[in-house]
Amino acid sequence: MSVIKVASHSRTAAVAGAIAGVMREADRAEVQAIGAAAVNQAVKAMVIAKSYLAEEGVDISFSPSFVEVMIHEQARTAIKFLIEPRNSKE
Amino acid sequence: MSVIKVASHSRTAAVAGAIAGVMREADRAEVQAIGAAAVNQAVKAMVIAKSYLAEEGVDISFSPSFVEVMIHEQARTAIKFLIEPRNSKE
Predict the structure, then answer these.
(1) pLDDT digits over A70-90, tens only?
(2) Could you say which of A72, A88, B35, B40 would form a disulfide bridge with A39 (CB–CB 3.0 to 4.6 Å)?
(3) Do A43 and B66 touch (CB under 8 A)?
(4) What is the number of structural domains in chain A?
């Protein structure tokens, strides 16, 4: 599964569209953000994606975790959001 | 249910403890944050709360939404995170 990477300058509507698209195809999506501004954009995008998918009868929730990623050969801690249907058993 | 309010200066471990405590008592919790720094603290606290509760065999997920709140008589948009057991049917 490809990871949707969100930056502080990412447009929330565009990210929301990407999340909804991946959810429709794969029934789960991963979003990754580094830093407060990017995490905030990711959360706002998830709220918007939630409203898009709610129109199709799909309710989503997310499960966040810390992940170490390498950026320009430096270790950074990112937040990874695993997005799933809300009452998923998987 | 009382709402756990997170500010940019909130300590993530303290917020995580509050979330875990409410989850143990009520099986669901609400966290509210306004602004990128506070949302980031809230997300980090949720990751930590998730690890606390995982030790007790409880897996949690989050469902974010926008809410309008009044701060000093001004309307602000907050992010509300509803926290539930991950495979909850409620």
Answers:
(1) 989 999 999 999 999 986 544
(2) B40
(3) no
(4) 1
Give the pairing type, strands B29-33 and A29-33: unpaired
Pairs of residues, one from chain A and one from chain B, whose beta carbons lie less than 8 Å apart:
64
* A46-61 tens-digit pLDDT: 999 999 999 999 999 9
Residue of B nearest to A80 (CA): B47
CATH code (residue B67): 3.30.110.20
Chain B residues contacting A via beta carbons under 8 Å: 35-37, 39-40, 43-44, 46-47, 50, 59-66, 79, 84, 86-89
Residue A53 Cα, gap to closest chain B Cα (Å): 13
Do A77 and A68 meet the contact criterion of CB atoms below 8 Å apart?
Answer: yes
Domain that includes residue A33, residue range: 3-88
In DSSP terms, A47 is beta-bridged to none
Other beta carbons within 10 Å of B65:
13
